[in-house]
Amino acid sequence: MKALVKRNFEPGVSLMEVEKPTPSKNEALIKVSYSSICGTDLHIYKSDVWARSRIKPPLITGHEMGGIVVETGSEVTQVKVGDRVAVETHIVDWSCTLCRQGKAHLCSSTRILGIDCNGSFAEFVSIPETNLIVNSPIVPDEFLPLEEPLGNAVHAASITQVSGKNVLIVGGGPLGLLLLLVLKGYGASQVIVSELNDYRLTLAKNLGADLVIKPDELNLLNIAKEATRGEGVDVSFDMSGHPLGINDALKALKPGGHMVFFGLPTSDISLNITDDIIFKGITLHGVIGRQMFTTWYEVLSLLENKKIDLSPLITHRFPLSEIDKAMEVMSQGRSGKIILNPEL
Amino acid sequence: MKALVKRNFEPGVSLMEVEKPTPSKNEALIKVSYSSICGTDLHIYKSDVWARSRIKPPLITGHEMGGIVVETGSEVTQVKVGDRVAVETHIVDWSCTLCRQGKAHLCSSTRILGIDCNGSFAEFVSIPETNLIVNSPIVPDEFLPLEEPLGNAVHAASITQVSGKNVLIVGGGPLGLLLLLVLKGYGASQVIVSELNDYRLTLAKNLGADLVIKPDELNLLNIAKEATRGEGVDVSFDMSGHPLGINDALKALKPGGHMVFFGLPTSDISLNITDDIIFKGITLHGVIGRQMFTTWYEVLSLLENKKIDLSPLITHRFPLSEIDKAMEVMSQGRSGKIILNPEL
Amino acid sequence: MKALVKRNFEPGVSLMEVEKPTPSKNEALIKVSYSSICGTDLHIYKSDVWARSRIKPPLITGHEMGGIVVETGSEVTQVKVGDRVAVETHIVDWSCTLCRQGKAHLCSSTRILGIDCNGSFAEFVSIPETNLIVNSPIVPDEFLPLEEPLGNAVHAASITQVSGKNVLIVGGGPLGLLLLLVLKGYGASQVIVSELNDYRLTLAKNLGADLVIKPDELNLLNIAKEATRGEGVDVSFDMSGHPLGINDALKALKPGGHMVFFGLPTSDISLNITDDIIFKGITLHGVIGRQMFTTWYEVLSLLENKKIDLSPLITHRFPLSEIDKAMEVMSQGRSGKIILNPEL
Amino acid sequence: MKALVKRNFEPGVSLMEVEKPTPSKNEALIKVSYSSICGTDLHIYKSDVWARSRIKPPLITGHEMGGIVVETGSEVTQVKVGDRVAVETHIVDWSCTLCRQGKAHLCSSTRILGIDCNGSFAEFVSIPETNLIVNSPIVPDEFLPLEEPLGNAVHAASITQVSGKNVLIVGGGPLGLLLLLVLKGYGASQVIVSELNDYRLTLAKNLGADLVIKPDELNLLNIAKEATRGEGVDVSFDMSGHPLGINDALKALKPGGHMVFFGLPTSDISLNITDDIIFKGITLHGVIGRQMFTTWYEVLSLLENKKIDLSPLITHRFPLSEIDKAMEVMSQGRSGKIILNPEL
């Protein structure tokens, strides 16, 4: 089959013919319909410091995906050939104390599709049946790969009440924009998006942001205060991982507010804990992955009932063979979500 | 000034000239712009069993209201003449252990406007300043009286997560319909409304209910299960107070679900606690009033940012002098919210 | 091996020689050290209405147990021969939407040890490895069978805050007394126990109840109010399933309080929802089983660190052969927990 | 009357005769029975950087106190002459949006007794009646001043579940030790205390710490892991404000754990947000003051029912005139709580 393989730590990936995988007894073989590109895929593509320390080439990369079950292992009972599925990308051990407490998304043995084992930028991929999420026909094919990052956003948005609240998103990349869609759908009173990149700011505005701020031209804190009778926002989400962004997100909060850490800083971050956290009685949440599988049921429910429309967020579509062009667009921040089609 | 006075326990109320009230030192005098009619007002109008046991005529009835501050008591500091205000109708003591724990809505000394003291079906009414909610010019005058019952709905909707969930409302009266607007605004995946009255069912459909059920023709439980892959709803709200409605709302829940009791039963209700509550691990919430004043800030935020449009729910407008006509329409269940105008 | 078998619906059980079970690939064979007797075992012993509708003889009864792993199925990886284990008695499917959301204790396919399949009143029993809880040597052998009902009590006590609160337990049977131990350990300010049986009242007092009430002689509500400055208790637990007990537990609550339904009523219960639930803003929780396996880790932690001493609750010990005597004592309510030893 | 006055920013305070205060209409005059010394008092005594930026001499310092109502203002209704009271030291405006949402402890207009207005190191002090907490005769006089910092500890301990959990306290000063007493009382499975000072470590051990660690001799993280089967603690409390202490507290957590920030850092703190917060799904809570007045009712309930014994924590008693000796002992960390008696 065709697959995009990270063969070594030179930049880029190679479109190659590789052997089609065979599902083990608890796995199903999935014919990939679409993948979408995650920031992680770009890190691997570029062979950055993180990628060099984490992955072991050769590796088929990619993890946001949808497809059709075409073969099932001998002990598979929960899916059948023909099922249309999205995929939870964290493969966990189900036996550690965290998994046994309903915190599988924090399992310390987690292996991630396309990072720790072969992924979805290919024609086929074999996946444990417990990780497969059967979708109703109502959900369009192109939405399936987006369910995984949408789950991140739903998980983040569910960690504290956002309905009827003023919220700030720092960082309008694809995940920040997915979060924007979720927060609008959940009835946040105002969603303010802070982002440097003009393309993304425009996209945020088009997706319904109540206020967009470009923090290099304007003072984020003043604007956030002004939009909230001088009080500050109820909830802020850092999707940037940037030191200034994180501190802005924290300082923009009103006393008693909640902050979500989502974007991954690449180095230690310095915080004014006394003034910005203790005196204001702030609660902070580190958010990773999706709740397995509470979040997924919510994602399915939102999409099946058309409460969230992902279409305007899908800005580009490429065949696997044009991965270099796709990564170039993504690298420049001139995209929402990019879909990869293995068949083209 | 003109006022609708409940003079004794004969049915009805009388439009009379009465003395204009004088604000005490912590009160403000409000010129009423609009009132809306609550089910409680109808109970008092009819002098039913509850009304006879609770109110002490003569009494100016009415409590859902908006107006303008025209005079302030000597120690009033938080509002000023000209402020446009809605009113929290629970007048509490602020000194009992419940008030001192942020549970003023449960204060055991609560006095309610238009029930325990003179109310808003009049040209003027005097109100403690702590109960006044100053509104921004963005919110239309006619919405102000509806903020109080909207607060009930927001309080009920905030008691457990509804975003991304399947919910059932049993009882599509004005409060059930306000709740419908809130649940839609908060991103519930599906809102199912069960109601006997055709007028209200049509209104529910127009206001965005995903599914409406007339339980005398159809089997509520089967329909609710069918709409939820056989699982049952995540959250159900009883707004009816009816024995069958309450039991339906409970049985329609999936295991682990939440139920809100809002409608007031007039007699004891028999429940299958073993099968419907314990074996299913259900959580039930008795909900009364609004959180003072957390709920109000959320109401203001939703209306100022136009996240909820109350217009389609306002179906009738009458002058005070046509109270009999208004009560007749309401009695028949052929209305959404009815607005009373003291000036007409 | 020896086992107590419910052969048919005549009252009682028979001590018989039966075939030793063989573990399937995901099971381990456990040599039972001790079992303890649950109220359910008494229902089955007596062949009451519930038992006749639920079990299918012949059946080895019993489910509260501890023992040693003596053989493991071919795919067992989490326990090994020699491990000393307690047992989660709910055997669930791990694949339904409830199990996949961390609510396995609400799985609709649950099979219960000693009710739906052969149980622990025997020399050996075969158990799925996921249901085995390996214990540290610090925990005494006799405590192992009590971990399962202790888990019920911990689950009930964890559903709302009890530390620093005034709480009421209605029903001082073995589970009510385990709950008493947990509530005392968790720093409840006052634990009030209401119970008719003198033996149990004395045991409750000895186990540390701050106040014991015999509701046929005294007025429970007056006493509960008096003990709480007239306010009522913060949390009440009904462990009785009795109509009067449930209503007392509800009425004894202060506004904003929480009630836990644990005892199983045998018929519908009539409640004053308006006055006792809605006007008081009460939250009610149906509690069943234990959280799998969050509760178990807490149980282990409490016992390993000697925060709860179960010794004074173990009042009787019998060999399997004296089951009739054990059931007689239990039937009269003249016991705490009764231990059965298969070896004697 | 006699009072300890901070006259200017020279180190120390002066015992002086000053005018006895007169209560305003909403205040009561309190004859101080005992005060206790807070770390803040030491900062003011020493005139450190923070003190110089915050207080405005001349000022009577001190805020942890108990006493007797000896005179009441004209509008006081909730206390009467002879009442024995403890004091909430945050004087708030009750009218800002935070106060009106039950978050008075976060009121941005807060004035603190003995910092922003005259305090309790005196024979008399005048206090708003809403800040007075009437105590039952069961609670000893010397415990009254300790209720305020005990409230801090109760507030911190109530922010997430600690019963049945493994917890770490970093910093065994007086507040850390009060927290230790609360956590033990609430049934934490293990309380580990990390502290450099030998006197405090011994006191922690005597007060019931399950494990005490001196982090300069031993590796805190290894010990915390070892005490928790390699998993890490469920909850950690930083009471030190120290950069190393905060990072230790964070790194000692298991995935999904909770951390409380209580000790005030004097400069920005650098955190590894990616590894220590996001990947582990940690929740962090900034905690300040006490919930007004939910925490106080819990404090009263714990003390009246003798669930927490403060006696072993009171290590020194001095008259006002020996303030220099008292501050010297405290400065060296050779004390638990120190009581000041205005009468000696």
From TrEMBL, chains A, B, C, D:
Residues 12-340 form the Enoyl reductase (ER) domain. Transmembrane segments: none annotated. Its cofactor is Zn(2+). Gene3D superfamilies: Medium-chain alcohol dehydrogenases, catalytic domain, NAD(P)-binding Rossmann-like Domain. Its EC number is 1.1.1.103. The keyword Cytoplasm does not apply. It comes from the Bacteria. GO terms for molecular function: L-threonine 3-dehydrogenase activity; zinc ion binding. NCBIfam families: PRK05396.1 (NF003808). This is L-threonine 3-dehydrogenase. It comes from Psychracetigena formicireducens.
